[in-house]
């Protein structure tokens, strides 16, 4: 076996390929570390998964050293010591296993695959640098053919030049990712839009004979380091008015000066808020990055004049890109920037490194608030997480219980009005604390709320008895299909209609304003 193995490993290309894949494996594992669920402890990249990562790194170094010995030392290649065949076999088997694990990780990340590829792309310079050092230190000196040496050097020089150029001017075409999404924050509108790279953001419109150009800024300093831009505009300035958005690309911000790119400006958007008593609202929940399936269902739902986004856009808010793609762009695509959106945070928007920045990025003061559409009172509650703060998934960074107590104090401070009232919350459970749940439903009764609109459970149903107040569970994605809902408010009551992406009706019921099912 040793003789056969020695012969096999005497091919320089074999040792080269083994070291290549041995170096690739830890890169793939690293790229998937935030979202993959293949290993139980993977979400925190601790314990077994981190041990596996360092084993992969060690294997990559070992495989490179063995390959280098083959390439650099002719005497070693001709008469290697006995242990070398065993070591090379072990490295090859480990490399095969690790490479399969790495590839399985990428495939197994599910909805996180886009993020894994982005992480892998960010890791590419590290991988290339490691590989080039190995190539030029160990392999290149052994290339005897002069033409081959010149060709390798030319390729390396061109790659190096493009690498340096792209590091200074990232090869990303600057554009809007979608139409804006206009979020009703409870005190104003937040016009939110995303660009393909970092830059500034502004909204331009005319109101009462005056031209306004309002920037995404803080205390006079324009924000130029985000891809999500939000500008808060008073309700009366935007209702039944036209506006456009613009953005200047910012490559770098210096202490004194900066390096900017081109400025882009959108078409004009005509914005209309529902003001009639009869109004239809699109409800969408739990799309978990399945925006294509969600849009297929929405195409079949009919006309709507506003949107309620009920949360769970992706498995987590790990990066700004996720929020840009699955909240801002998706919201822009389904509204065209011309009707308002109510955004209720899902429990998956409370996880990941970007979760703490989400409210500011969307121009929202809080995720619990109240507003009015067409005379109807809409109260948005934020269930935040569906687990207690000590759950391992939060990595010690959760203080949602105290947050929910602040929310319930605010909710209890609200006064009853003559308006017909609807409560919106990602999860109808409202909280994990029993006393908060009791207080929330007692307050809903006191305010005369008629129904709770929610999601979270990935099935579509009108629940009459499961919670103290009649509750509509919007469907979201499940089993490869997607269920979207159209909720129509009128003086007669609430009409609930849901369909899947084939346009088949899933549910159609009516509820009176006193909370009883009429049809
Ligand atoms: Fe959820």
Write the SSE topology.
Elements: H1 2-9, H2 12-31, H3 47-72, H4 74-78, H5 82-108, H6 113-139, H7 146-168, E1 181-184, E2 189-199, E3 202-207, E4 210-215, E5 217-218, E6 221-222, E7 226-233, H8 235-238, E8 241-254, E9 257-265, E10 269-271, E11 279-284, H9 291-299, E12 306-309, H10 320-335, E13 340-343, H11 358-361, E14 369-373, E15 376-381, H12 400-412, E16 421-425, H13 434-447, E17 449-454, E18 461-463, E19 471-473, E20 476-478, E21 481-490, E22 493-499, E23 505-511
Parallel strand pairs: 1-13, 11-12, 12-13, 15-16, 16-17, 17-19
Antiparallel strand pairs: 1-2, 2-7, 3-4, 3-8, 5-6, 8-9, 8-10, 11-21, 14-15, 18-19, 20-21, 21-22, 22-23
Helix pairs in contact: 1-5, 2-3, 2-5, 2-6, 3-5, 3-6, 12-13
Bound molecules: fe (ii) ion.
Question: Which characteristics define this entry?
Answer:
519 residues; alpha+beta; Immunoglobulin-like; Purple Acid Phosphatase, chain A, domain 2; six-stranded mixed β-sheet; 13 helices; 23 strands; 26% strand; elongated; binds fe (ii) ion
Structure description:
With 519 residues, this protein is of the alpha+beta class. The chain is 38% helix and 26% strand. The strands form 4 sheets. Strands 1, 2, 7, 11, 12, 13, 20, 21, 22 and 23 form a 10-stranded mixed beta sheet that branches. The chain has a 6-stranded mixed beta sheet with strand order 14-15-16-17-19-18. Helix 2 runs antiparallel to helix 3 (47-72). It is elongated. The mean pLDDT is 89. The structure holds fe (ii) ion. Fe (ii) ion (FE2) binds next to loops.
């Amino acid at each position: 076996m040793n003789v056969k193995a020695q012969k096999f490993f005497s091919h320089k290309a074999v040792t080269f390929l083994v070291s290549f894949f041995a170096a690739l494996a830890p890169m793939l594992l690293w790229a998937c570390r935030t979202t993959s669920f293949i290993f139980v402890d993977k979400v925190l990249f601790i314990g077994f998964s981190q041990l596996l990562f360092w084993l992969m790194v060690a294997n990559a170094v070992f495989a490179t050293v063995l390959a280098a010995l083959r390439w650099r030392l002719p005497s070693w290649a001709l008469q290697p010591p006995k242990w070398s065949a065993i070591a090379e076999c072990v490295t090859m088997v480990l490399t095969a296993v690790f490479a399969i694990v790495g590839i399985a990780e990428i495939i197994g990340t599910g909805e996180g695959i886009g993020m894994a590829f982005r992480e892998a792309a960010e890791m590419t310079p590290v991988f290339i640098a490691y590989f080039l050092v190995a190539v030029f230190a160990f392999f290149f000196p052994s290339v005897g053919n002069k033409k081959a040496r010149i060709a390798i050097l030319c390729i390396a020089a061109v790659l190096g030049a493009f690498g340096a150029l792209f590091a200074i001017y990232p090869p990303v075409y600057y554009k809007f990712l979608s139409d804006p999404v206009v979020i009703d924050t409870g005190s104003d509108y937040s016009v939110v839009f995303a660009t393909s790279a970092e830059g500034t953001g502004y909204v331009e419109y005319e109101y009462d004979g005056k031209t306004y150009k309002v920037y995404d800024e803080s205390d006079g300093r324009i924000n130029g380091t985000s891809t999500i831009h939000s500008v808060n505009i008073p309700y009366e300035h935007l209702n039944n008015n036209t506006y456009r958005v613009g953005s200047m690309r910012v490559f770098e911000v210096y202490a004194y000066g900066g390096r900017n790119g081109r400025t882009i400006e959108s078409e004009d958007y005509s914005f209309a808020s529902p003001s009639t008593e009869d109004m239809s609202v699109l409800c969408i929940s739990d799309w978990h990055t399945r925006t294509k399936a969600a849009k297929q269902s929405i195409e079949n739902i009919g006309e709507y004049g506003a949107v309620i986004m009920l949360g769970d856009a992706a498995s987590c808010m790990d990066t700004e890109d996720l929020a840009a793609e699955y909240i801002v762009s998706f919201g822009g695509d389904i509204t065209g920037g011309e009707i308002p959106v109510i955004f209720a945070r899902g429990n998956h928007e409370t996880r990941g490194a970007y979760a703490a920045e989400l409210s500011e990025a969307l121009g929202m003061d809080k995720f619990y608030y109240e507003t009015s559409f067409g005379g109807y009172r809409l109260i948005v509650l934020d269930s935040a997480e569906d687990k207690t703060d000590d759950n391992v998934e939060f990595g010690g960074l959760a203080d949602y219980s105290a947050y929910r107590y602040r929310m319930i104090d605010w909710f209890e401070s609200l006064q009853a009005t003559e308006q017909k009232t609807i409560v919106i919350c990602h999860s109808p459970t409202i909280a994990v604390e029993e006393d908060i749940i009791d207080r929330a439903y007692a307050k809903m009764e006191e305010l005369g709320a008629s129904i709770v609109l929610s999601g979270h459970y990935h099935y579509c149903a009108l629940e009459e008895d499961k919670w103290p107040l009649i509750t509509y569970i919007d469907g979201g994605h499940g089993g490869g299909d997607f269920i979207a809902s159209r909720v129509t408010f009128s003086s007669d009551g609430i009409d609930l209609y849901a369909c899947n992406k084939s346009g088949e009706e899933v549910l159609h019921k009516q509820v009176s304003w006193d909370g009883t099912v009429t049809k």
